[in-house]
Amino acid sequence: MADEPMVTRWTFQDFKLFYDAKFGRKKQTEAQNGPTAEKPVSNGSSSNGNGHVQNTSDMAIYEQFQSQGSNSTHSNGVLSNGINERPQRSLLPPLDSADARALAESLCRDIIRGSPDVKWESIKGLENAKRLLKEAVVMPIKYPKYFTGLLSPWKGILLFGPPGTGKTMLAKAVATECKTTFFNISASSVVSKWRGDSEKLIKVLFELARHHAPSTIFLDEIDAIISQRGEGRSEHEASRRLKTELLIQMDGLTRTDELVFVLAATNLPWELDAAMLRRLEKRILVPLPEPEARRAMFEELLLSQPDEESLPYDLLVEKTEGFSGSDIRLLCKEAAMQPLRRLMTHLEDREEVVPEDELPPVGPIKPDDIETALKNTRPSAHLNFHRYEKFNDDYGSQILQ
């Protein structure tokens, strides 16, 4: 190390000589002019004519890269042997610090790698909500030529409505149909116990989304992240900084042409901050299912066999006014449990244990089972539906029929 210049006293010439010795450029020049003898060094390194130490392991890596560089591509630190292969996009964008890289790696776990496999056709009803989502997210990606200037796409979309009406399923359908990079973000993804990390996570999240554009950031239960600020002066400083950073990043999306969409869902839209409502430009009400949608759900969940008594679908549609989609699923599950309960009672009365391959099949669902399920199941979200309609009248996107 005595031959190497001190770091604080390097001149440009010293740095050039050391760089050439370190990475072998001097060796290539000497190989063209003629071989030069090198003295072996006891620590596995060799010394060139300049007296600088050269590490053989580093040279081996460099020569390997040089030999493969003519017929390979270098992408994200990995060598590949494809001649015409395009370099793949790196998982992480160029970040300014190791802390930001660690935060980005933690957020990468929230990227949905595979398709959620939820098609538009698998969502019964909600035709207006699906149409507005296609206009807001799908069409700008498929036909970017038309969405410029005044018709630039909405960057913030809010899905609000009673619980169990299909807001998360609509977000999964967007991830399936749009084929964008989908970030499934919850409060646990962007809230940290370390001071300053929460707002850094928000910033890195949007940098990742821009790097992987076109992308969609889905904020489920957004009211847990950005409720109204400063109520009763009881808000913590860290929570306020997090909300401010999210508002700044959302405002930056509306001023760029990058295809990064923020898709938010909430059951309590009236608790959101007014500044966030302004940035969520498109606000879509996801209502309770209509009679046609309820009938389609019952026909899919409760199949009627041809040789059995038909189920009273009309009665089900009439008696389930105010039921959400999850309530209807619970009702169908309760109806399907009735024949299984009769079979379990019969099996429990027998003293011997019946082998698994000899168990009798479960009987069909009868109309009496439907009436019993209707008595035992109650809707969960119909009482506050007028609040969602009032919020939609005040702030929502009016739906044109």
From TrEMBL:
<dbReference type="InterPro" id="IPR041569">
    <property type="entry name" value="AAA_lid_3"/>
</dbReference>
<dbReference type="GO" id="GO:0000922">
    <property type="term" value="C:spindle pole"/>
</dbReference>
<protein>
    <recommendedName>
        <fullName>AAA+ ATPase domain-containing protein</fullName>
    </recommendedName>
</protein>
<dbReference type="Pfam" id="PF17862">
    <property type="entry name" value="AAA_lid_3"/>
</dbReference>
<dbReference type="GO" id="GO:0005524">
    <property type="term" value="F:ATP binding"/>
</dbReference>
<feature type="region of interest" description="Disordered">
    <location>
        <begin position="28"/>
        <end position="54"/>
    </location>
</feature>
<keyword id="KW-0963">Cytoplasm</keyword>
<dbReference type="InterPro" id="IPR050304">
    <property type="entry name" value="MT-severing_AAA_ATPase"/>
</dbReference>
<dbReference type="GO" id="GO:0016853">
    <property type="term" value="F:isomerase activity"/>
</dbReference>
<keyword id="KW-0067">ATP-binding</keyword>
<dbReference type="InterPro" id="IPR003959">
    <property type="entry name" value="ATPase_AAA_core"/>
</dbReference>
<feature type="region of interest" description="Disordered">
    <location>
        <begin position="68"/>
        <end position="92"/>
    </location>
</feature>
<feature type="compositionally biased region" description="Polar residues">
    <location>
        <begin position="68"/>
        <end position="83"/>
    </location>
</feature>
<keyword id="KW-0547">Nucleotide-binding</keyword>
<dbReference type="InterPro" id="IPR003593">
    <property type="entry name" value="AAA+_ATPase"/>
</dbReference>
<feature type="compositionally biased region" description="Low complexity">
    <location>
        <begin position="42"/>
        <end position="51"/>
    </location>
</feature>
<dbReference type="GO" id="GO:0005874">
    <property type="term" value="C:microtubule"/>
</dbReference>
<keyword id="KW-0493">Microtubule</keyword>
<dbReference type="GO" id="GO:0016887">
    <property type="term" value="F:ATP hydrolysis activity"/>
</dbReference>
<keyword id="KW-0206">Cytoskeleton</keyword>
<dbReference type="Pfam" id="PF00004">
    <property type="entry name" value="AAA"/>
</dbReference>
<feature type="domain" description="AAA+ ATPase">
    <location>
        <begin position="153"/>
        <end position="290"/>
    </location>
</feature>
<dbReference type="InterPro" id="IPR027417">
    <property type="entry name" value="P-loop_NTPase"/>
</dbReference>
<keyword id="KW-0413">Isomerase</keyword>
